Amino acid sequence: MVVTGVVVGAGLTVATPAAQAADFYTPPASFSKEPGSIIRSQPSPLLLQIPGIKNQWPGTATRIMYTSSYQDGKPAAVTGTVVEPTAPWRGKGARPTVVLGPGTVGQGDQCAGSKLMSFPLAIDPLKPSIAVNYTALEMNLMLLNGVRVVITDYIGLGTPGIHTYVNRRESGAAMLDAARAALHVAKAKKDAPVAFSGYSQGGGAAASAAEMASTYAPDLNVKATYAGAPPADLGKVIDRIDGSFIVGGIGYAINGLTARYPALKPILDSETTANGRQVLQRVATQCIGDTALSFGFQRTTQWTRTGESLSKVIARHPEAQKVVDEQRIGKLKPNAPVLLEGSFNDDVIPYGQVRTLRDDWRAQGANVRMIHDGTPPIFPGLVVNHALPLLGTLLPSANFLLSELNS
Fold first, then answer.
1. Are 233 and 253 in contact (CB under 8 A)?
2. 355 within 8 A of 193, measured Cβ to Cβ
3. Assigned superfamily of 13-233+327-405
4. Which of 8, 59, 214, 406 is packed most tightly, with the most Cβ within 10 A?
5. What is the pLDDT of residues 6-25, one digit of tens each?
6. What is the residue extent of each domain of the chain?
7. pLDDT tens figures, 306-341
């Protein structure tokens, strides 16, 4: 559910009230309910670009706010960034668009990737907080090949309300509507090729988009999806990261799910200690680095009244187990080829649940391939075995997407 900070280039900015101005991220009182509609937009310089000069490498970026939808179908304002590449598309047909789902960056609004496109690192000494944007590697690889890129911030990250981390329905919708929004910004044809890509949290979002595309966005011409280390079975992921450096990511999930499933709140109130409730409250405003440094290697047994792990508490409450089960990816069929990645020794995303996702999709007749990373265990629990496969699969995943987009 997280990749530690992988950054292209150097850059550091200290956040100021002006830099963190909320005006862009506060939705207007009314906006179009049409999914993928552009609510507002503004130029967004990329790393090392000089403001005011056109056609700089690797492309022209536009920060956007677009319409997506909450779990109940009501319209939601989501932010993100569209980048039109300087390089030409030399493949077949119209220039394609790849939607990138970021990996875990945190739950605080300051962590939104669209706030960090000109510099990949921002420090807010007032919180304090360190925000990191590590999408540059994959983004630039696509842009070099003339592929348009749109990166979503997801629902509630940057914009008002809680970020509904690993919510299957809302993550998938944010990705699909980002594709529609990018086509609007580029004035591209509605049937221009589209693909989805992501790793970890982003892999789950990409996988959700892949299987929701037929029903939620049949208008999109989806060509392919790459989903690296997707958290397809949330229950198994919670067990894996409990006690790890990023155990606080469980708090992100609990906070997001509680916001959409009110029945969880009385369960949490009765089952968590004052310390546990404080952890949940604090992580809701943190970036992943802040959370790891604050709560790394704790166990959820330290947060519960009975001393049980959160996974055991969930299992005791059918209402809570049902909520977790509803986040399971693999119940719907993707309408285009999918490449999955799973690492045998991933210390965040269990390999077995990625393999199960592959099998679930194949049983429905989907075109699914899977690549495996065999990196040996390196300091288990420190997230090294989750971060390294991201780097190792950059080229294979890019080649897969480019091949399908050019078919």
1. no
2. no
3. Alpha/Beta hydrolase fold, catalytic domain (3.40.50.1820)
4. 59
5. 333 323 333 433 344 459 99
6. 13-233+327-405
7. 999 999 999 999 999 999 999 999 999 999 999 999
